[in-house]
Amino acid sequence: INAEYMGASTFGTLRLSGRERHHFLTQYVPWAVRGRSAGGTYYLNVYFEEHLDAPVGVLREMMGIEKPPPFG
Predict the structure, then answer these.
(1) CA-CA distance, 71 to 20, in Å (whole number)?
(2) 65, 35 contact by CB (below 8 A)
(3) How many Å apart are CA 41 and CA 27, to the nearest integer?
C-alpha cells in the first residue's frame, strides 16, 4: 500500500466538520468493513467492460454490493 494513500485516508478525515466526521465514522466505516468482510467479489477480477450497459442496481446486486448509507 502506498504511504501517500495511507496518509490521505488517515488524515483526510481531519478536514471534515465534527458532524461529518461522526457520520463518516458511524455510518461509512462500518459499511465499508461489512462490504469487505462479507466475502464480496474481488473487483480486480471483474471485466467491467462486459457490464457497462447494465443498470447500477443490477450490477450492485450481482456483485453483492450493499448500497451506501445516505449522507446527511
Answers:
(1) 9
(2) yes
(3) 21
